[in-house]
Amino acid sequence: MKYDIIIIGAGLGGLTAGAKLAREGKKVLVIEQHDRPGGCATTFKRRNFTLEVGLHELHGPSPTELKSKIFNELDVFDHVKFVRVPEFYRFINDRYDVTVPHEPETAIERLTGLFPQETDGIKAYFDQLLNPRKKGAEMEGLDKSVGDFLDSIIRDEDLKLILLGNLGYFHDDPYSLSMAYYTIAQGSYFKGGASYIKGGSQNLSDYLADYIRNHNGEVLLNHMVTGIKADNNKITGVQYKRKNDFASDYMEVHADDIIANAAIPNITDLLPVEMGMKLKNSLNNKKIGTSLLTIYFGFSKPLKELGNSHYSTFVFDSSIRSQADILSNNMSDFSKRIFTFIDYSRIDSGLAPEGKGTGVICCIDYIKDWEDLDKKEYYAKKEQVASVFIERLEKLIPGIKDVTEYVEMATSVTVKRYTLNPSGAVYGFAQTPSGTPVDVSGLPDNLHFASAWGKTGGGFSGAIYGGYLCAVNLLRKNRG
């Protein structure tokens, strides 16, 4: 069978690209190895709880940003409900307990009240985030790290830590995170606030998959692409088979263009040898980003009944005295590692029955700490780590152990198993200072990339942007 476009992977990048292309009349086939679309934008059911895999907060959607244009074009707002998140985040260490609001004016006022001696630095920080075009021009060719930028404008280390409270949304180390990337990503939260998808991120993924189907496209789940076919330096199609069915036959399907929504390092093994080596060589200087450990909770009552009044809380151990300590802390024992707690019952999330609640603990994770364990050791360590975090959570919200009805933990190994991402990376390639896009100039011009591993970076918004822009560029190319 012949299609206009085949998309390998049904993450948000692939789904957005597929929806846009199907809307424009292209015959689209999406092939996904998992049993549901979405990648990290998925949920799963346990008892009577819906547990969110990846989404804590999605910046915006605000009227002036690209995501709103995309959602309007694909009729997302008519079918998916977005619930506003009340504040950006709460930061806690043994010295400060500060809630950072989404509104920049209020944030500046609150932070300058706590650190009056740093007024100029605080204003410089927000000026950078709120005026990226002006500041981007000043930094052109001189991209620095977030850590270096903060050191250049602020002296108080606790203020730096507060500003870096949600660093784990992007990376594990402020001194190797691109300031240019951070400016756009972090600034988006302060410009347009944030939302959560009511009922969970699966609702967005399912809607986009249905949009493709309703526009004469196909979304094939539980099937694995095993090879990309080429002839005369042109991609011609893909080979695939039913996942986990060793008796199933290999099938082949053809298309004019192929979009890889899968992790780019994985594509190297799917391409013919010479093409695969070209792509692999272009990745030599690219660092794979970090993974996350997540503990999912179902609660017998909303946590506001225990006195919790915050949606997202970032807890920094007392041993972190400066931003230079963050990377080593992220690699330290879980009893001290920075963690985030999200209380979904603080909003109308639609994840739990009336009178109950759900939440997650999340922290930076590395696959090297898990992959060499045998099965028994792996599960024993998971149980031990979960117990450590539950004790830490009890100190944050006393009484929470008594209302905990369900607990389940996912590690970087879990992420790798369900997404196939190398090292279980959730954000694609690390966004390092002066990083360059993957060089695809030596590859066929009908092979395209749309995922968190591309130019627009990771996170839900990055993947959505990447998928949409990939589709737009493909349409322009074919019209040319």
Describe this structure in words.
This protein is an alpha/beta fold and 480 residues long. It folds into 2 domains: 2-55 and 200-285 and 436-479, 3-Layer(bba) Sandwich (FAD/NAD(P)-binding domain), CATH 3.50.50; 89-197 and 288-419, Polyamine Oxidase, Chain A, domain 2, CATH 3.90.660. Helices cover 34% and strands 22% of the residues. The strands form 4 sheets. Strands 1, 2, 10, 11, 12, 13 and 19 form a 7-stranded mixed beta sheet that branches. It has a 7-stranded mixed beta sheet with strand order 8-7-15-16-17-14-18. Strand 7 (89-92) and strand 8 (97-100) form a beta hairpin.
| Number of separate structural domains | 2
- The oligomerization state is single chain
CATH topology of the largest domain: Polyamine Oxidase, Chain A, domain 2
Largest sheet: 7 strands, mixed
What is the name of the CATH class of the largest domain? Alpha Beta
Class based on secondary structure composition and strand pairing: alpha/beta
Strand count: 19
The overall pLDDT average reads: 95
Show unreliable segments.
none
> How large is the share of residues in beta strands?
15-25%
Distance between the termini: 26 Å
Give me the Rg, rounded.
Answer: 22 Å
Secondary structure: helix percent: 25-40%
CATH architecture of the largest domain: Alpha-Beta Complex
- Count up the helices: 15
* Gross morphology: globular
Brief write-up:
With about 475 residues, this protein is α/β, with parallel strands linked by helices.
